[in-house]
Amino acid sequence: MVIEWIATFVIILAGVWFLTEVLQATWYETVVTNLVPRLLLASVILTSVQVAVHLRIENLLDDGLPFLIGSGILWVGCFWAILQFATSHALGLGLAGMLLLTSLSGLASDGLQGVGRSARINTSKPARKSVRTPRYNSAVMPFQQPAAPSKEVDPKPEPAPDQTKPK
User: Fold this and answer.
1) DSSP H helical segments within the chain, as ranges?
2) What span, in angstroms and rounded, lies between the C-alpha atoms of 91 and 72?
3) CB burial class (10 A; 0-12, 13-18, 19+) of residue 50?
4) Partner of 103 for a Cys bridge, out of 3, 57, 154, 162, CB 3.0 to 4.6 A?
5) What average pLDDT is seen over the chain?
6) Distance CA 17, CA 9 (A)
């Protein structure tokens, strides 16, 4: 849980910082005052909600749809109230940032779930051998290189039969 929270926090902090730093300077020609505390506050809020609700790319549109809508409202609110974007910019950046950063941080935290645990291999059953059959009539066979014609010269050619000898 702690590793998941840290991985999610780092990804969301980096993404929100990039969006805020670059786009605030580009669109408004100003930088938000007290940017670091605002970024930390927004990132802690967004990370806590994502870890608590367990939003992942797999469940965004089926089981987690109500949480997705609530999370979208929260992301837009953070970009609007905490990071001081204009309403239309906060709406677009909040939703785009939520979809992108939620997916990335979910993938990273899912990949880090087994860190620190020893892998256990079940040795009570023998390993199953995979069955692979060749594809004989396939137009393209994987990893098959076309055979080049051999251009080797015979070192000693066979002597021609002697036609002068009587039979």
Assistant:
1) 2-28, 35-53, 65-77, 87-111
2) 9
3) buried
4) 57
5) 79
6) 12
Structure tokens at 13: 């902090």
Q: Which two tokens stand for residue 20?
A: 């805020």
Q: Which residue has the tokens 């001081």?
A: 84
Q: How far apart are CA 92 and CA 47, in angstroms?
A: 19
The owner of tokens 């000898």 is: 165
Could you report the per-residue pLDDT of 105-139, keeping only the tens digit for each?
A: 888 877 776 655 555 666 777 767 777 666 666 56
In the block, which residue shows the tokens 């290189």?
145
CA distance 81 to 85: 8
What is the Cα–Cα distance from 64 to 58, expressed in whole angstroms? 9
Mean pLDDT on 29-41: 86
Q: Residue 101 CA to chain centroid, in angstroms?
A: 11
Q: How far apart are CA 69 and CA 95, in angstroms?
A: 10
